[in-house]
Specification:
GO molecular function, one term: kinase activity
Number of strands: 17
Membrane topology: Multi-pass membrane protein
Keywords: ATP-binding, Cell membrane, Kinase, Membrane, Nucleotide-binding, Phosphoprotein, Transferase, Transmembrane, Transmembrane helix, Two-component regulatory system
Transmembrane segments: 21-39, 290-310
CATH architecture of the domain at 391-600: 2-Layer Sandwich
Catalytic activity: ATP + protein L-histidine = ADP + protein N-phospho-L-histidine
Helix content: 55-70%
CATH class of the domain at 391-600: Alpha Beta
């Protein structure tokens, strides 16, 4: 997200204008189209739900009438016959039992053939004896009825009918019978009906609304369905969604959305459920969706064309101003821009013209002078280094020659030869090395030869310690950078202080910088002397004491700052009587420095 924000922030104004117009049009069209679409779909759902509620209400009315007709017919047959008396009898003689059974079977036969949709009739007297008759001998309706019938439940319903569905799609009505005179329980009657007797009710509604219709009995079991009990209807029943308090539910099944309406009849005898597929319900809104997409595409095209034209006219002056700014930053040559308008861009152009003229004047008067001064100072330091490199310290040469002379008399030719060899090497290296920079390894080699001569001169009075990070030996450093520091350590660490002298030369890496150190245990310096050594311009002309080494140290410090900046150079840590440590900080660079490029050219 941050990456895209950065890309957008860096984009050109023309692109920003273009995107802004496009986004505004896109959001507006999407909001209008989306609201229209959802309002339309919501209205369709709402009207369909109301119509569905009305339809299932009519189903409930028809269902109550048809089932009540069956219940009333069975009761009227029972009341108009002597079946109540026969069921109440407890015959003992075989002849009386035969007469009673014959009467009951005749009643069942009359009742069965009273209506064409009756499939079976079943009676159980108070003693548990059952009587039955059925139309189709191949289907054992009465066995299924016996397995499904709960006598205790029917007795507890006190004359109300219990309706349920069999496995062979037969519909059953069962109710308890009571003696008319004594209101005493005498048995149970059950009637099996064809499923088409009630199925036509839900089939017509299913064809009208293109939705599944389910009828549940008072035990919330499926009684009649417009389709086979599978798929969404089975899911609805298994999840008990019909128990919703609002009578409406919205659910998802197999990746499709459905709405369901539930209506309960009086005494919760029936629950009528209609399940409607939202996708089928709203399939007429596809044209609205296509119109929305088409309008969106056309609007975006118009928005892009308008944005391209307007952004071009707005940003044209800005592009000209930007080109002139770029040209001015390269060669500081400015050609005045004529503003095409007096808007914010025109005012900005006028201000830039004025600013460019002033910068041009300042550049020629200040920057040029500064560059000339810096070049002159750099050349002066170069001359000082050349002179310092060409003429070795007379004090050092005098001591060396005197030592050669004395040793020639006392010790023979070996050591004299060594000193002469080392001195010749130093002179060859100091004169023969070209360019302004060398590798740190070459500079350290020069210092080792320089100190080796002092080691021969002073013998055991001097101890030399080297602490070198070998990974830095390939770094490029200004030539002749350590010799003045080492010479200063010899003068103040050996010549001005009696006893054992220690000189340590080292280098280490600190981040991306190389730190070179030269330390001694000589007489040291106070803070004012250190400050005078690094900033002599604040104290005037330095005194004549060790002027050669002072000039060398100052030149090293200034040269490093000119080459690498104020963050680099020398720092001196010293205490009187304890010694001095000089640190040189410069970049750990393995490439040629600025001086070398100038030398090559």
């Amino acid at each position: 997200m941050r990456k895209w924000s950065r890309v957008l922030a860096d984009a050109k104004l023309r692109t920003k204008f273009l995107l802004s117009f496009a986004v505004i049009i896109l959001i507006t069209v999407l909001m209008i189209s989306g609201i229209n679409y959802w309002v339309s779909v919501g209205a369709i759902k709402r009207n369909s739900a109301e119509f569905s509620h009305y339809l299932i209400g009519q189903i409930g009315i028809n269902l109550d009438k048809l089932t009540s007709d069956v219940e009333e017919m069975a009761f009227q047959q029972f009341r108009s016959s002597s079946l109540s008396e026969k069921l109440s009898e407890k015959p003992v003689k075989q002849a009386d039992v035969y007469v009673r059974d014959t009467f009951i079977n005749d009643f069942l036969s009359d009742l069965l053939f009273n209506e064409d949709y009756f499939l079976s009739v079943f009676i159980i007297d108070s003693s548990g004896k059952s009587y039955s008759i059925q139309r189709k001998a191949l289907v054992n309706y009465n066995r299924e009825l016996t397995e499904r019938l709960d006598l205790r439940q029917i007795q507890d319903m006190r004359g109300r009918a219990l309706w349920f569905r069999g496995d062979n799609d037969t519909l059953y009505m069962a109710r308890a019978l009571y003696d008319i005179a004594t209101n005493k329980y005498v048995g149970i009657i059950a009637i099996g009906l064809e499923s088409d007797y009630l199925g036509a009710i839900v089939t017509n509604v299913h064809n009208l609304m293109d939705g599944d219709v389910l009828i549940l009995n008072e035990d919330n079991r499926l009684f009649v369905s417009s389709e086979e009990r599978a798929g969404v209807g089975e899911y609805y029943l298994d999840e008990r969604l019909y128990m919703s308090d609002t009578g409406k539910s919205d659910f998802e099944y197999d990746g499709r959305r459905y709405i369901a309406s539930v209506l309960s009849t009086v005494y919760d005898k029936w629950k009528i459920v209609q399940i409607i597929d939202v996708g089928r319900l709203t399939r007429g809104t596809e044209s609205l969706k296509y119109w929305t997409i088409g309008t969106l595409l056309v609007s975006l095209l118009i928005a892009f064309l308008m944005a391209a034209f307007m952004s071009k006219s707005i940003t044209q002056s800005i592009r000209i101003l930007l080109q002139r700014m770029t040209h001015f930053s390269l060669d500081f040559q400015h050609q005045a821009i004529v503003p095409k308008s007096r808007d914010e861009v025109g005012l900005l152009t006028a201000k830039f013209n004025s600013m460019a003229e002033k910068i041009n004047d300042l550049f020629h008067s200040v920057y040029s002078e500064k560059m000339l001064k810096q070049k002159a100072e750099y050349r002066t330091l170069q001359f000082e280094y050349k002179a310092l490199q060409a003429q070795m310290n007379p004090h050092f040469l005098y001591n060396t020659l005197e030592a050669v002379y004395s040793m020639a008399k006392l010790k023979g030719e070996d050591e004299i030869g060594e000193m002469v060899y080392l001195l010749g090497t130093l002179l060859r290296e100091s004169i023969g090395r070209k360019g302004d920079t060398v590798t740190l390894g070459e500079e350290l080699g020069f210092i080792r030869g320089y100190l080796a001569i002092h080691k021969i001169i002073y013998g055991d009075r001097i101890e030399l310690v080297y602490e070198v990070d070998e990974t830095l030996t390939a770094c490029r450093v200004p030539k002749f950078i350590l010799q003045p520091l080492v010479e200063n350590a010899v003068v103040h660490g050996i010549e001005e202080k009696p006893g054992q002298a220690l000189i340590r030369v080292g280098c280490r890496r600190e981040g991306g910088d190389a730190v070179l150190e030269v330390s001694d245990n000589g007489v040291g310096m106070d803070a004012e002397t250190v400050d005078r050594l690094l900033a002599p311009e604040r104290y005037g002309t330095p005194d004549g004491t060790n002027k050669h080494t002072n000039v060398g140290i100052i030149s090293v410090h200034k040269r490093i700052r000119i080459l690498y900046g104020d963050g680099y150079g020398l720092t001196i840590a010293s205490a009187v009587g304890e010694g001095t440590t000089v640190r040189v900080r410069l970049p750990a660079n393995e490439e040629d420095g600025p001086g070398d490029e100038a030398q090559k050219s």
